[in-house]
Design goal:
CATH architecture of the largest domain: Alpha-Beta Complex
Number of domains: 5
Structural class: mainly beta
Distance between the termini: 174 Å
Largest sheet: 10 strands, mixed
Number of strands: 42
CATH superfamily of the largest domain: Cysteine proteinases
Helix content: 10-25%
Number of helices: 10
Strand content: 35-45%
């Protein structure tokens, strides 16, 4: 009896080679959950037409098939990464959608050939990114459309940023991985129904156009244990039927097809199969001669039409050359991440936002999260002059957590960070976190440049708020004190505050603004004010009018100016009635005062008349001495004309020109001779010679005797 049992065991192992050498099959496909169906609603749409591309038409012309635009044989392998293995994790959908499909599209865009995670991991899309976000926190498979839509919304992290580990199905991407995934977003995702021949042709058209597709099958024992050996449901390396026990759902990647691929189904020879790349490693399946490794399989058209799982293929469109320009960043700390539903919104009214992005539906399962997440907001063309909102719903158990951080960023500009965090979530309800743009930093306040101690001075500020909120202002007086906030005014309006300083110094007044949400701007540049006492100075300190003819007037000026701070003001008075000033009062820091001397009523005198001007001001008192000598009103030369042959003295009518300087000029203004008379004589000797000693020419000359001009004619 023991012998019979031994023989029976031997025969079973012989007839089913490898049947018990493989590890148990790990299902990787499951139907979408209600939450996932809600997430996908209206997004992954059925594809009903695919136009042949130029590549497809070239292939068709080289090897025309039965339908226009479809060649007989198509294989897209140049940009495939090397064949990999999912190991013991149910991540086949992510291996298909991310590792093979997304890597293929990005390699095609960037001309990367046969990327290998062991050599160039930065060129390989990580299946860990798609699976760990889409598995609801359990290693029980995922739904391909969810992974596809996640790549539409978030892109896909590289193997370098998020290495694959088949023992880790829980970890989420870190902040850098989230951000670095965004340039590899897909444009959209679609599904092809394969249950009719038209759907089979659509899948072939996608492949002929140079694209790939994710497909799903229900794995039975014949495929898992015996492929590619001929057995029930498998012939010539083609899976055409199921046999044995059902093991579970599985995803693979369609990379080509062959209309002439033959297989015998037990009744007749049939033709036509899709070429798939699998994620069970390079020692499984059939070898592809162009790639040089195993890891591939063929599945008949009929099988895909009649027996594939959900009879669906999924495709994505690459977002070629994508450069994101707007980011939303938020931080979460919660023990059950799957209870959180996160929506980014833009606009000043959270109840009527300009746009919304459900950037993190509650798909994470009952695992903790404590990290920052980066979302791409570029597609929504957000207006950074408006507010941003994070709407967070916490469902499920009484467990709550916190939103720890929120920020937005435009290109490489500094982040705009919310002051509304941390904020606790509320079970069964929404909370809102706001990014409110602070007011723009005001320009330096306007006001006086100088002042005096203990005198209030008013300063005014204005700014605008990007959100249009009202603003208030606070002034830093530069002496260690600050003002209270002003009342709120409309954006673009001004507000003022006053301050006085007791100590002489130069102070720098700054201002900042806040809005009605208490978001504050930075401090402005400083406006300098020099606090000094008013100091009166006059220049000159005396006025010498010299000699003024009798019954004449003469005007001179002086400055009364401020050599200190504040504003100078004062009055001017005189102590003699023969002089007047204009103006008699002033206010300003540099004032010109006219002084008029009138000799009317004054007697001729060789000694000066003396008077005093008094300047009285808030900066002190100054006096200016005024002096004037009164001389005769004028003198006339005689004889006129003056003969060079007969005369050698100039005589004057009247009282003469005592103490005079007589200057004789040509009509052109050239000085001929200067004569001095300092002894009170009524005539001056002149030998008709110029300063060089030469006789002057005949003509008319001008003489000037202090205040009385005249002319003489020279006769030869």
């Amino acid at each position: 009896m023991n012998v019979v049992i031994g023989v029976g065991i031997f025969l079973i192992l012989f007839l089913f080679p490898g049947a018990y050498a493989k590890p148990p099959f790990v299902p990787g496909i499951r139907p979408p959950t209600p939450k996932e169906e809600e997430y996908l609603k209206g997004k992954v749409k059925e594809v009903k037409f695919i136009e042949p591309s130029e590549l497809a038409l070239r292939r068709y012309r080289l090897s025309p098939g039965k339908k226009f635009g479809l060649a007989v044989l198509v294989k897209n392998y140049q940009y495939l990464p090397v064949v990999g293995s999912q190991g013991g994790q149910g991540s086949c959908a992510a291996w298909s959608a991310c590792y093979y499909y997304k890597t293929y599209q990005e390699s095609k865009e960037h001309s990367w050939n046969h990327s290998d995670p062991n050599i160039d991991p930065e060129h390989v899309a990580s299946p860990a990114f798609g699976y760990n976000l889409a598995n609801a926190g359990e290693d029980s498979g995922s739904w391909p459309a969810v992974i596809m839509q996640l790549m539409v919304d978030h892109g896909c992290a590289s193997w370098q940023d998020m290495p694959y580990d088949d023992s880790d199905y829980i970890s989420w991407p870190d902040e850098d991985a989230w951000r670095n995934a965004i340039p590899y977003r897909a444009e959209n995702a679609g599904e092809i129904y394969l249950g009719i021949d038209a759907g089979i042709n659509l899948l072939k058209q996608a492949l002929s156009n140079g694209d790939l597709a994710t497909i799903t099958i229900i794995v039975y024992e014949n495929f898992y244990f015996y492929y590619p050996n001929d057995t029930d449901g498998i012939n010539n390396g083609v899976l055409f039927d199921n046999s044995g026990a059902l093991l579970g759902g599985h995803a693979m990647t369609a990379i080509g097809y062959d209309d002439d691929k033959p297989y015998f189904d037990g009744t007749e020879t049939k033709y036509g199969a899709f070429l798939m790349v699998n994620s069970w490693g390079s020692n499984w399946g059939v070898e592809d001669p162009d790639i040089g490794t195993k890891g591939f399989c063929w599945i008949s058209y009929d099988y895909m039409r009649d027996k594939s799982y959900y009879q669906t293929a999924w495709i994505i469109t690459d977002k070629e050359g994508y450069e994101p320009t707007a980011y939303g960043i938020f931080g979460l700390n919660h023990n059950k991440r799957g209870e959180l539903d996160i929506t980014f919104m833009g606009g000043n009214d959270k109840n009527s936002p300009d746009w919304t992005f459900n950037c993190l539906p509650n798909l994470g399962g009952n695992h903790p999260v404590n990290q920052n997440i980066v979302a791409d907001l570029t597609s929504y063309n957000p207006d950074f002059s408006k507010k941003f909102w994070l709407k967070v719903y916490d469902s499920g158990s009484p467990t709550t957590g916190q939103v720890t951080y929120m920020a937005v960023q435009e290109d490489e500009e500094p982040r705009i960070t919310s002051t509304d965090t941390p904020k606790d979530t509320v079970n069964g309800d929404y909370i809102y976190i706001m990014i409110n743009q602070p007011p723009n930093t005001p320009s330096a306040p306007t006001g006086d440049d100088s002042g005096t101690p203990n005198t209030p001075y008013t300063f005014t500020a204005t700014t605008t708020d990007p959100d249009g909120d009202q603003v208030a202002f606070k002034f830093d007086w530069g002496d260690g004190s600050e003002s209270d906030w002003t009342s709120y005014v409309d954006s673009g309006s001004s507000a003022s505050k006053s301050h006085s300083w007791s100590t002489e110094d130069t102070y720098y007044v700054k201002v900042k603004a806040k809005d009605t949400y208490n978001a504050e701007s930075g401090w402005s540049a400083g406006h300098s004010i020099t606090i000094r006492a008013v100091v009166l100075k006059v220049d000159p300190s005396s006025l010498d009018f010299d000699e003024v003819g009798k019954s004449s007037t003469k005007i001179m000026t002086f400055r009364a100016y401020n050599a200190g701070g504040g504003t100078l003001s004062g009055t001017i008075s005189v102590d003699r009635n023969w002089m007047t000033v204009s103006p008699t009062s002033f206010e300003g820091n540099d004032n010109t005062i006219s002084v008029t001397v009138s000799t009317e009523g004054l007697a001729e005198s060789h000694t000066p008349y003396i008077g005093t001007i008094t300047v009285t001001s808030n900066g002190g008192t100054k006096t200016i001495e005024v002096s004037v000598i009164v001389i005769p009103a004028g003198a006339v030369v005689y004889p006129n004309p003056f003969s060079l042959a007969r005369h050698n003295n100039l005589s004057f009518w009247g009282t003469g020109v005592p103490y005079a300087e007589i200057r004789i000029f040509t009509l052109a203004g050239e000085l001929v001779k200067t004569l001095d008379e300092r002894y009170g004589a009524s005539e001056v000797s002149w030998d008709s010679r110029n300063e060089k000693g030469d006789k002057v020419a005949r003509g008319i000359y001008i003489y000037v005797v202090k205040n009385f001009p005249g002319k003489i004619a020279i006769i030869k």
